Amino acid sequence: MCMGNSAQCTQTVTVTDNEAPLINCPASMVVNTDAGVCQAAVIVPVPATADNCGVASLVNNKNGLEDASGTYALGATTVIWTVTDIHGNISNCSITVTVRDTELPAITCPSDKTVNSTYGLCTGNVVINLPAVSDNCAVASYSNDYNGATNASDTYPVGVTNCHLCDLAM
Q1: Sheet of strand 75-85, all strands in order from the earlier edge strand to the far edge
Q2: Which of 18, 116, 158, 162 has a CA between 20 and 30 Å from the CA of residue 11?
Q3: Predicted pLDDT of residue 30
Q4: CB 94 within 8 A of CB 25
């Protein structure tokens, strides 16, 4: 309080934090699918953060948490982290988690076939069972090298023909 011949005034001083927080993302990752499935359990390092006044939160767009570790599907997933400081300033960084399928497909050929030639011809009509095919993700297509189709049933010449399945695509 001032006494006597004096005057008084009040001045408000406001210091504003407009400095964005710092965020340093881990490197993008390439991982293989887990055995027998078309996905991968991935451990993703948490980004490093800092701020001049203090970090309030760090979240990612995959699961809304700080830690983006979890199950990732085949292909590329972009993970974006957002760090917010205690005054509402934000910064972002992102990585790509790529899951690739390196597991070989499986194929079991049907048993060998022996048929008699068609009467009066030097060929025989052969019905061939389809092979058993599987893959951890999916078998998109396959064909044989005799007629180029999925089903190798066809007219075959007299003699031995080796029919190979090929182009097993996932």
Answers
A1: 29-32, 90-100, 75-85, 55-60
A2: 18
A3: 98
A4: yes
Phi, psi of 50, rounded to the nearest 5 degrees: -160, 155
pLDDT score of 166 more than 80? no
- Whole-number pLDDT of residue 2: 61
Q: What is the 3-state secondary structure (H, E, C) of 69-126?
A: CEEEECEEEEEEEEEEECCCCEEEEEEEEEEECCCCCEEECCCCCCCCCCCCCCEEEE
CA-nearest of 79, 37, 34, 36 to 58 is 79
Q: What structural domains does the chain harbor?
A: 22-100 (2.60.40.10), 106-169 (no CATH)
> Is residue 63 a contact partner of residue 92, using CB atoms and an 8 Å limit?
no
Across the chain, what does the average pLDDT equal? 91
DSSP for residue 149: S
CA angle 55, 57, 61 (to 5 degrees): 140
CA nearest 152: which of 123, 117, 125, 115? 125
pLDDT at residue 44, as a whole number: 98
User: Tens digits of per-residue pLDDT, 25-47?
Assistant: 999 999 999 999 999 999 999 99
